[in-house]
Amino acid sequence: MNSPALSVRNLLRLFRNAAEPEAMPVGVRNVSLEIATGEVVGLIGESGCGKTTLGRCIVGLERPDSGEVVVGGTDFTALSGRDRRAFRRNVQVVFQKPETSLNPRMTVARFVGEALANFDVVPRGARRARLEMLAGLVGLNADALERYPHQLSGGERQRVAIMRALASEPQVIVLDEPTSALDVSVQAQVLRTLKALQAEVGTAMLFISHDVAVVRYVASRVLVMYLGVIVEEGPADAVFTAPSHPYTRALLAAAPRLKPSGDEAPPMHGELDLRAARSGECPVRPRCPLAHDRCREAPPMADLGDGHRAACWLADDLNKQSSEPTYREKTAS
Amino acid sequence: MSDPALFEMRDLTIETVRDGHRRRIVEGMSLSVRHGEIYGLVGESGSGKSISMMASVGLAAASLDITAGDVSFAGRRFAASDRRGLRSNLSHGVSLLFQNAKGALSPFLTTGAQVERVLAGRLPKSTCRREAIELFRVCGLNHADLADKYPHQISGGQAQRVAMACALATEPRLLIADEPTTALDVTTERELLRFLTRLCRERDLAIVLIAHNLSLVAEYCSGLTILHAGQIVERGPLASVFAEPLHPYTRGLIAAVPDVDAPHELEPLAGSVWGGRSDIERCRFSHRCPFAQPDCEAGVPALLPRAGHEVRCILYREDAT
Ligand SMILES: Nc1ncnc2c1ncn2[C@@H]1O[C@H](COP(=O)(O)OP(=O)(O)O)[C@@H](O)[C@H]1O
Ligand code: SF4
Ligand code: SF4
Ligand SMILES: [Mg+2]
């Protein structure tokens, strides 16, 4: 990999729950990751596991307690004031509900035009042409440029949010559940647009979603997060066909399917319970169907080859087991 | 199908004025649910799923005109326009469960008190507490202190279980569940639906599962109806519809669902549910349909039997080649 578009190093951002001082603080614990130019990386995990917090730290909406967010060679977290604001053009974000970021009193052209002007992306005279080019990129009709958000459908509004994110020519875009509020039909349109963008523009993307099927469609690499740590990561094909962490296996098995697979990877016990986790242990232990004595000590990341890694004492065995033809046939048929 | 239906909606039609025009937002909707079955109702948002089911229990908004139809439940029949009569079903065996349980629960009462309040409708006060604890247990709410918490102190999955405990407190025979798991993680979703499936088996509870997610219906339902723009476009036993989906809309919906096991290109559906001409009687999918032809706008196609289920599309007319 040549120098990555985004490199996150040992990012820490923890929240203590005042009501439960005993409980382990939640958030993001020492996460490191890299995304290359043109790469879409998926981030999956249950709600509350820290996905959004990680995304917010990357785009500068949240200050990490420690760690670095390096974009194009510059550590974003070290900047402040004007430099920090100017640097923002390099990292953009798209949220689940476009309503929260669009301005109801601005037409699409003004709203996106504002971003072009703020970051001085193109000379004033070239703005209109750029707007039309951006609209084309996200599959929006040029006449939508003169409309207000309430005159657009949910899918169109999400395209506008993506368009605005693209306007400043960022190196990285974080998309946090960008299609979760959309109908499958509209979701399919937006996902196709994102894929086409990846081919045309090459912006690095972190695609956060709890929907594993959606992530499988858009991402070439996947990170699986649990209670603030990455428990498994690797090329999407490897993680989806040979999941090697009990949590990943449970998460994939739980996804509803048009053709139910009959794959019965053992489910996690109960719900994500922040009170149950103990520091020093494997964070998954309280819910893990395969937990055993050794799990009272946190497992290291096992290297499974080709960048596929999993933090579980049993990762090698699980990897072999799930690469076996029987398991694959079951999940693929 | 000798077993008489527990719930039967026939020919429900709902009209309202929208964009200055009078429109039939639900037309000729019918639905039949047997004892103990989970029946799926599918379609994009705006297609009329929730309004139909709300109307069936007398809870359609006052601005909606219910111009035709009737609903039978457990042997009692009411005209669909008889909102009061239909609402009485809510205390005689029909319960509701919604997507956003946290919003539906009262913020001022502990979860235990909310369930007890519902129980007080049919039980002497002295036994409510005990019964509430039992319901919590049944719904998988095992933490002893959960009953003393307020809705904002619990997780989304727990809130959904509390809402379920409230819904079950009336001992329903039919549960109308409107996107009950849409806001939840897949892990919690699976647990809840497994739990509901078990209730159906053990207590003979029937469920109408309203979902925009076809995969959920594929996993848990025995039959389904697909609605588009207020009309049934296809319906039948699950196995038959999924083995041979016929309507272009059904096929479009299926092609738009990403597959976690075998990723494929997604084929998005063009257009929106209510687009197209409203001044003529036509196939209400014609403005989005890749197979549309002049005949499709000559009238509303009939719902006809084909391949073990029913479909509303001229491609499947008797005389179609
Ligand atoms: N500002 C905050 N104050 C306190 N706790 C927070 C704050 N922001 C997030 N959290 C907590 O951090 C955890 C991780 O949250 P989040 O990043 O939103 O997870 P996800 O996006 O995976 O659902 C959650 O338990 C959440 O409640
Ligand atoms: S280390 Fe132990 S507890 Fe942790 S995921 Fe692996 S088996 Fe489960
Ligand atoms: S009737 Fe015509 S327009 Fe309607 S679904 Fe069939 S082919 Fe398409
Ligand atoms: Mg989130």
Distance, first to last CA of chain B: 32 Å
* Quantity of strands of chain A, as a count: 12
Strand order of the largest sheet of chain A: 6-7-8-3-9-10-12-11
CATH superfamily of the largest domain in chain A: P-loop containing nucleotide triphosphate hydrolases
Walk me through this protein's architecture.
Chain B: Belongs to the ABC transporter superfamily. Chain B: It is found in: Cell inner membrane. The complex is a heterodimer of chains A (333) and B (321). With 333 residues, chain A is α/β, with parallel strands linked by helices. Chain A has two domains: 6-219, P-loop containing nucleotide triphosphate hydrolases (Rossmann fold); 242-332, no CATH class. In chain A, 32% of the residues lie in helices and 19% in strands. In chain A, a hairpin with a 5-residue loop joins β11 (302-303) and β12. Mean pLDDT of chain A is 89; it is low at 328-333. By secondary structure, chain B is α/β, with parallel strands linked by helices. Chain B has a domain at 5-93 and 172-246: 3-Layer(aba) Sandwich (Rossmann fold), CATH 3.40.50. In chain B, 29% of the residues lie in helices and 25% in strands. Chain B is built from ten helices and twelve strands. Chain B has helices spanning 49-56, 83-87, 101-104, 111-119, 125-138, 156-168, 186-203, 214-220, 238-243, 248-255; strands at 7-18, 21-33, 38-42, 65-73, 76-79, 94-97, 174-178, 206-211, 223-228, 231-237, 303-306, 309-312. In chain B, strands 6-7-8-3-9-10-12-11 form an eight-stranded mixed β-sheet, sandwiched between helices. In chain B, β11 (303-306) and β12 form a beta hairpin. Chain B is globular, with a radius of gyration of 21 Å. The mean pLDDT of chain B is 91. Chains A and B meet through α6, α7 and α9 of A and α6, α7, α8 and α10 of B. Bound molecules: adenosine-5'-diphosphate, iron/sulfur cluster (SF4) (2 copies) and magnesium ion. Adenosine-5'-diphosphate (ADP) binds at residues 15, 26-27, 45, 47-53 of chain A.
